[in-house]
Amino acid sequence: MSITNVTIQPAAAPALTPQERERLALLADRLIAGGAGLPSASGAEVHTQWIDRAMAVRADLDGAVRAVLALEGDPAEVVERLQAEDPVLFGSFAMAVAGAYLINPRIRRELGYPGPAPMKNAALPDEAESYLEDGILDVVVARGPIYRPTPAS
Q1: Whole-angstrom Cα distance, residue 100 to residue 58?
Q2: Rg (Cα) of the chain, in Å, rounded?
Q3: Sign of dihedral through CA atoms 49, 50, 55, 57?
Q4: Is the pTM for the entire model greater than 0.85?
Q5: What is the DSSP letter of 37?
Q6: Under 8 Å CB-to-CB from 108, ≥6 apart: which residues?
Q7: Do 47 and 41 form a contact (C-beta atoms < 8 A)?
Q8: Residue 35, SS3 per DSSP
Q9: Is 26 exposed, middle or buried (0-12, 13-18, 19+ CB in 10 A)?
Q10: How high is the pLDDT of residue 44?
Q11: Which candidate, 67, 70, 116, 74, places its Cα nearest to that of 92?
């Protein structure tokens, strides 16, 4: 097997139950209530596919999300108590909810945020010469250019 054939997949955590998703929608709406033309967390479907994607990429947040979902009580009281009594758990939960909200393409469009874009870094003056000073590329320079021409269409 060649390394070019390897596909890296995030670890799949067990899916949230329908009851956990309902609870997540209520708790997430306490964090992102919506307004100014933007939907609430549940309106952006944070509790559906977007939380699944966020937790697949950030598996370290899975435990925090599930711990918060297991807390009983009124969602407003749970969020308020959690923020006051366990700011680390609250921060992890808020990160998961906010991440799930912001990876929704509709939300990014409405915010006018296209997502991260590759940045071009200009070469520094004399940068190329620094690679030639210690002789590490002498073999490559001596070999000369090698390439395969593209076939004519």
Answers
A1: 11
A2: 24
A3: positive
A4: no
A5: T
A6: 102, 114, 115
A7: yes
A8: strand
A9: middle
A10: 92
A11: 67
Three-state SS for 111? helix
How many residues does this entry show for the chain?
153
Rounded Cα–Cα distance for residues 139 and 142 (Å)? 5
38 backbone dihedrals φ, ψ, rounded to 5°:
-105, 145
Per-residue pLDDT of the chain (153 residues; tens, 9 = 90+): 444 554 545 555 568 899 999 999 999 999 999 888 899 999 999 999 999 999 988 888 999 999 999 999 999 999 999 999 999 999 999 999 999 999 999 999 998 887 777 777 777 777 777 777 888 888 988 998 888 888 886
